[in-house]
């Protein structure tokens, strides 16, 4: 029976009584657990209804294959998306709790590193909201992204133990499991007059499905994120235990569980670890087997129909082994021929690139691949043979050397440029050759994809290449994380339709200069700033000036994102304040600067940058001359939930990557939606944000992407700004202590070292300081600042992931909405 008839407060108490053995005297965590387990049932009702409908209609599905889904918390999102917020807020009130506090007891599901993982989560929200038949597929990591703590100002990493209290947002599917094999050998046998290929893996594990229902907003649709857990085969094969081989069985358990144990905490700095390839194959194989088994249940062996029923989006190169796995399943298991399979497979697959950095494009040694996935290595070799042969024909008009050079440059299997004895499988090339569409994630990035990274391929298949500018869900990133601003917007526009149609936010432009409206707008920002101030107080014990400009940079710590440049400008500001008289200081714009983000555990330079932030903060925040005017805090353990508190409070956000390096950025869109001004380079989605907001409303600085190559060549002759030189001497001289530890940081941007300052901090330094002066001048004119702030939100319509997903659905997936009837 449905729980709909049980009043929510009773249902919450029932859940606590029967699932947790609690009888009154609840803690906040209890209140969360009871609420979550109660909401879960409504979610499952909606999930079942949707899937019954989809089963009946049999529409084409999109499967989003991603090694990462950075979901964050679910309670608030679920009750709001299902329209149960009033009912549960009221229920909790009756029990003596406040929804917001209760929601705070939930642990983040942090199964992702950063932008790429969070994008996947936003996409799921939009797919469900748009009623698109679609699932996410990934790995149910037992440990997600590490928790970051600070010890004496240095990053330390702690395990993310997120499942210990159970997970009300998932459903284990005991009837959905698949075998996934590794290693072993490949043999050919005659079967009648046909030769068949048999792969006998030396190792097998079971992929066990867990479903995570994804509620759409303002629709009965609830879709699904299916995550795979790796468990040993012996669990299901009692004879192994009966044979008395207990030790071996236990070892096997450990080995199997190792596959889904932990998310690799690297963002864009790949480690060629075999376990990572194992993870990739594990989830890809299970997902493809799952899709094919459902397809066969309805359409039998009519595989030519597959591209009309299923398509897969490869979220970066991480799931690219799907090209070979789909081929293998159709060739070896289903017995189709190569040509037919190649046609089907390329029709079903599409690839999104998220990075321009060549070192972040995955390449696996042929040796590793041949050992772990011998049949796949064979298939890739055959694909590459066919591909290079086809290329030779296609390029027949080129001079022989030129042709050979071009073919070598485009070969999926090629030499390791740093080690001539090693051959590599280039996963990005495999993805480009093996799929129908290839896209970048912002206009500038898609151009770099076409003109630089895959230019040879673009020349041959121009129509394969597309742009799909990223977006973020306006539900989580505006409506639910900033309900105060959301009600002001709804009251002003006279409708809440903007939550489904963000283009309606443009209606706010008419109020941008309206004084009365500006006052209300400012009051919301002030309330959100108070919340962030509370958090700073909790973490650092300091009270901050809530009238100061809240200046934020939150993202993974990376040299190309240039948090270091931000710190340099903060030090410069500090030095200027020190020189001023107390009277002069009173005229300065006060700032509270916040930096947050995790450094990959092996990324030494990024860890030094974190230490520089904390060391500079220690000096600045204590200085009685300046502490009224300038603060710098590092907020540890930046994650989705922290972002939901920080972003609504931000007045200025920094997106200052070297032009041409940040594929898109997505937090820039979240800040924009929340009326936060941007200081940024002409990079990634900043460009499109500036176009939508009005370029004069954005603090743009720095060199352009087209200039970068030349400037890098000339960097050793670059005459650095005297202020820059002074700051380098300060850090080197120990102004912030730890001189030896900071020395490599200073060296990394030193123009006397050929090839150094790769990210051109020194080149952008002067124009950055100038842009910061413009920020101060603008902030002094609060009415102008507020006008711009309103223009940001008003201009953010384009950056809803609903728009992005609609474009994917129309231009790449060709899937159509399919809404269950209520
Ligand atoms: C190979 C492995 C170590 C690896 C793991 C994670 C490589 C890359 C990543 C993550 C990349 C990532 O998050 N990229 C970001 O994707 C966002 C969504 O498209 C972009 O907005 C952002 O600019 C880009 O850096």
UniProtKB/TrEMBL annotation:
Reactions catalysed: [(1->4)-alpha-D-glucosyl](n) + phosphate = [(1->4)-alpha-D-glucosyl](n-1) + alpha-D-glucose 1-phosphate
Keywords, sorted A to Z: Allosteric enzyme, Carbohydrate metabolism, Glycosyltransferase, Pyridoxal phosphate, Transferase
Modified residues (N6-(pyridoxal phosphate)lysine): 670
Pfam families for the chain: Phosphorylase
EC number: 2.4.1.1
Cofactor list: pyridoxal 5'-phosphate
GO molecular function terms listed in the Swiss-Prot or TrEMBL record: glycogen phosphorylase activity; pyridoxal phosphate binding
Gene Ontology cellular component terms for the protein in this record: cytoplasm
Xref: PANTHER family: ALPHA-1,4 GLUCAN PHOSPHORYLASE (PTHR11468:SF30), GLYCOGEN PHOSPHORYLASE (PTHR11468)
Protein name, UniProt field: Alpha-1,4 glucan phosphorylase
Origin species: Volvox reticuliferus
Organism placement in taxonomy: Eukaryota, Viridiplantae, Chlorophyta, core chlorophytes, Chlorophyceae
């Amino acid at each position: 029976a449905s729980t709909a008839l049980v009043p929510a407060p009773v249902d919450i108490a029932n859940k606590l009584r029967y699932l947790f053995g609690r009888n009154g005297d609840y803690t906040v965590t209890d209140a969360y657990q009871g609420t979550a387990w109660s909401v879960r049932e409504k979610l499952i009702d909606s999930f079942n209804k949707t899937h019954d409908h989809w089963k009946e209609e049999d529409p084409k599905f999109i499967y989003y294959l991603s090694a990462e889904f950075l979901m964050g918390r679910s309670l608030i999102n679920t009750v709001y998306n299902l329209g149960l917020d009033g009912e549960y807020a009221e229920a909790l009130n009756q029990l003596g709790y406040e929804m917001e506090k209760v929601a705070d007891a939930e642990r983040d599901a942090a199964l992702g590193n950063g932008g790429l993982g969070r994008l996947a989560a936003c996409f799921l929200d939009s797919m469900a909201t748009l009623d698109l038949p679609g699932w996410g597929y990934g790995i149910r990591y037992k440990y997600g992204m590490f928790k970051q703590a600070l010890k004496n100002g240095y990053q330390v990493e702690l395990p993310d133990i997120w499942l210990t209290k159970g997970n009300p947002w998932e459903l284990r599917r005991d009837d959905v499991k698949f075998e996934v094999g590794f290693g072993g050998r490949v043999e050919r046998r005659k079967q009648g007059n046909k030769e068949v290929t048999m792969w006998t893996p030396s190792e097998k594990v079971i992929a066990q499905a867990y479903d995570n229902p994804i509620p759409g907003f303002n629709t009965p649709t609830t879709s699904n994120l299916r995550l795979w857990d790796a468990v040993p085969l012996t669990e299901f094969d009692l004879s192994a235990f009966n044979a008395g081989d207990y030790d071996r069985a236990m070892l096997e358990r450990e080995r199997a569980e190792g596959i889904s144990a932990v998310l690799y905490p690297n963002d864009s700095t790949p480690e060629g670890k075999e376990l990572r390839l194992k993870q990739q194959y594990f989830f890809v194989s299970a997902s493809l087997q799952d899709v094919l088994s459902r397809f066969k249940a309805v359409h039998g062996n009519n595989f030519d129909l597959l591209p009309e029923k299923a398509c897969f989006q490869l979220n970066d190169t991480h799931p690219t082994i799907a090209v070979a796995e789909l081929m293998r399943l159709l060739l070896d298991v289903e017995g189709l021929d190569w040509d037919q399979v190649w046609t089907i497979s390329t029709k079903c697959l599409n690839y999104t690139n998220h990075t321009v950095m060549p070192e972040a494009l995955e390449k696996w040694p042929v040796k590793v691949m041949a050992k772990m996935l011998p049949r796949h290595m064979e298939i890739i070799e055959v694909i590459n043979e066919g591909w290079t042969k086809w290329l030779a024909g296609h390029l027949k008009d080129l001079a022989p050397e030129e042709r050979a050079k071009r073919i070598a440059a485009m070969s999926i299997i090629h030499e390791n440029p740093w080690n001539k004895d090693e051959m590599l499988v280039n996963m990005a090339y495999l993805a480009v050759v093996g799929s129908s569409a290839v896209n970048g994630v912002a206009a500038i990035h898609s151009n770099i994809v076409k003109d630089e990274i895959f230019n040879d391929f673009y020349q041959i298949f121009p129509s394969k290449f597309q742009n799909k500018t990223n977006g973020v869900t306006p539900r989580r990133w505006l409506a639910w994380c900033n309900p105060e601003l959301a009600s002001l917007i709804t009251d002003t526009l006279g409708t809440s339709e903007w939550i489904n149609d963000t283009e309606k936010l443009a209606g706010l432009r008419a109020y941008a200069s309206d004084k009365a409206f500006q006052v209300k707008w400012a009051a919301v920002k002030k309330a959100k700033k108070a919340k962030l101030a509370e958090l700073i107080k909790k973490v650092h014990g300091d009270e901050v000036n809530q009238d100061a400009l809240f200046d934020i940079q939150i993202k993974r710590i990376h040299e190309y994102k240039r948090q270091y440049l931000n710190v340099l400008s903060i030090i410069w500001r500090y030095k200027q304040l020190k020189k001023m008289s107390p009277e002069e200081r009173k005229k300065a714009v006060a700032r509270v600067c916040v930096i947050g983000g995790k450094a990959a555990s092996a990324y030494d330079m990024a860890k030094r940058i974190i230490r520089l932030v904390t060391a500079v903060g220690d000096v600045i925040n204590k200085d009685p001359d300046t502490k009224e005017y300038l603060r710098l805090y590092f907020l540890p353990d930046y994650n989705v939930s922290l972002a939901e508190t920080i972003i609504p409070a931000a007045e200025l956000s920094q997106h200052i990557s070297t032009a041409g390096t940040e594929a898109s950025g997505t937090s820039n869109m979240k800040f924009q939606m929340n009326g936060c001004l941007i200081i940024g380079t002409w990079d990634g989605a900043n460009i499109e944000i500036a176009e939508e907001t009005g370029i004069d409303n954005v603090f743009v600085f720095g060199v352009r992407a087209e200039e970068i190559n030349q400037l890098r060549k000339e960097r050793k002759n670059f005459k650095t700004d005297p202020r820059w030189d002074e700051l380098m001497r300060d850090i080197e001289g120990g102004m912030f202590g730890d001189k030896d530890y900071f020395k490599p940081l200073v060296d990394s941007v030193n123009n006397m070292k050929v090839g150094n300052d790769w990210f051109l901090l020194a080149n952008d330094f002067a124009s950055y300081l100038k842009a910061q002066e413009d920020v101060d001048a603008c902030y002094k004119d609060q009415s102008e600042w507020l006008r711009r702030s309103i223009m940001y939100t008003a201009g953010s319509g384009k950056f809803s992931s609903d728009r992005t997903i609609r474009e994917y659905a129309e231009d790449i997936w060709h899937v159509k909405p399919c809404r269950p009837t209520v």
